[in-house]
Specification:
By secondary structure, this protein is of the alpha/beta class. 28% of the residues lie in helices and 26% in strands.
């Protein structure tokens, strides 16, 4: 199917200096990342991530975590406006959750799909408008990078070496060139970057 809509695939994720999205303790080991997630630079970065996106593409574990947390932020009048803006977007936008175990979605405006990430993105790009945001879901982002289907990367790089854990950029990816279109350095040394795929 040919993409005729002009939809772009964007993705956001935080990684350490050694390219890991969690530490050696497994997916819950976010010590090298979590303290940087609420800085001024990270919150400004969060605002840019969902701008122009009309579909959130999530893995099941991320959907369960995000949709268990962010709706309470959307309803909290005392929350940081940047956090609340993202939270409201996530609650209100179309969500596509990739899962091999769920048969129906327990969340509103959500559909569950059991298919390879590249196939799902190709189908999404053929219809609709607005960007497709792969929302902090490395199990989706990795195969899309392997298929060269990502148009924009929002990376928050933390000034720590995790020393273990899974890496985002693994050996065997196709070679590609990216253009740095935005960068901002935070007070803790974190760097928020936006890279666009040069095609």
């Amino acid at each position: 199917m040919t993409n005729t809509t002009g939809r772009k695939v964007t993705a956001n994720i935080a990684i350490t200096l050694d390219g890991r999205y969690h530490g050696p303790g497994g997916p819950g080991d976010l010590g090298a990342i979590v303290r940087y997630a609420t800085t001024e630079v990270a919150r400004n970065h969060l605002t840019q991530i969902w701008d122009g996106a009309t579909t959130a593409l999530l893995s099941r574990p991320n959907a369960e975590g995000f949709l268990g947390y962010w709706p309470t932020v959307a309803a909290d009048e005392n929350a940081d406006p940047r956090d609340r803006g993202y939270a409201k977007w996530l609650v209100d936008t179309e969500k596509v959750v990739l899962s091999t175990t769920l048969t129906e979605a327990p969340w509103e405006r959500t559909r569950v799909v059991n298919a390879p990430a590249a196939d799902v993105v190709t189908e999404l790009k053929a219809t609709g408008t607005g960007n497709i945001l792969v929302n902090t879901s490395p199990s989706i982002l990795k195969p899309l990078l392997a298929a060269d289907l990502v148009d924009r990367l929002f990376l928050l790089i933390t000034p720590e070496i995790a020393g273990g854990g899974l890496r985002l950029f693994e050996d065997g990816l196709p070679g590609s060139t990216w253009t740095l279109t935005h960068q901002e350095v935070g007070e803790l040394g974190e760097i928020a970057t936006i890279y666009d795929r040069a095609r």
